[in-house]
Amino acid sequence: GSVHGDARDLGAFDPESYDAALLLGPLYHLLSQSERDRAIEEAVRVLRTGGRLFAAFITRFAPFRFVATGDPEWLGDHPAYARQLLETGIHDQPPKTFTQAYYAHPEEIVPLMERHGLITRSLVGCEGIVAGHDERMHGLEGQAWQAWVELNYRLGQEPSLHGASNHLLYVGEKSG
């Protein structure tokens, strides 16, 4: 079954009762740092020692990648809002195509999660280097496909490329 709830309050679940917890959305839909901290605290609370936390983030630069391809005039028309996005990561104006959100700077993710008692196991750019250039990739098979999958995954772990990905997946382990 499922339980409808709030990532900031997992009181319906006992402490240290799960081997894995997923935060695949809450951390970019909670605008305040205190709300994001609370969601992480709750996920860590319900994890057993050694359990894994998987958390998704939308990067600070993702909205700019989006408008570059869909509405390139937007940047010139909204310089103050673009500056707000870059400086704070907070998208709080009425949505044109996406709800209110917090866009994380790639460099803040590991320190944030480790402050909550997690040991970082991985931080991976989900789209990778072929995002937006992948039309011909979809027709590949066999060794050619496998080579691109392996390269994309390897480079998705490269910190210097994290800001070029729309989404990052953090994997951490609860320490003892």
Key structural traits:
single chain, 176 residues, two-stranded antiparallel ribbon, alpha+beta
Task: Give structural notes.
This protein starts with 17 loop residues before the first strand and ends with a strand. It is an alpha+beta fold. Helices cover 38% and strands 22% of the residues. The model has no long low-confidence stretch (mean pLDDT 93). The longest helix has 15 residues, at 142-156. The chain has 7 helices and 6 strands, in the order βααβαααββαβαβ.
Strand arrangement, largest sheet? 1-2-6-5
Query: What is the tally of helical segments?
Result: 7
Proportion of strand residues: 15-25%
Q: Please state the structural category.
A: alpha+beta
Straight-line N-to-C gap: 30 Å
Helix content: 25-40%
Low-pLDDT sequence parts: none
Order of helices and strands: EHHEHHHEEHEHE
Radius of gyration: 18 Å
Give the strand tally.
Answer: 6
Task: Give average pLDDT, whole number.
Answer: 93
Task: Spell out the blueprint of helices and strands.
Layout: E1 18-23, H1 26-29, H2 33-46, E2 47-58, H3 62-70, H4 74-77, H5 79-88, E3 90-91, E4 101-102, H6 106-115, E5 118-125, H7 142-156, E6 167-174
Parallel strand pairs: 1-2
Antiparallel strand pairs: 2-6, 3-4, 5-6
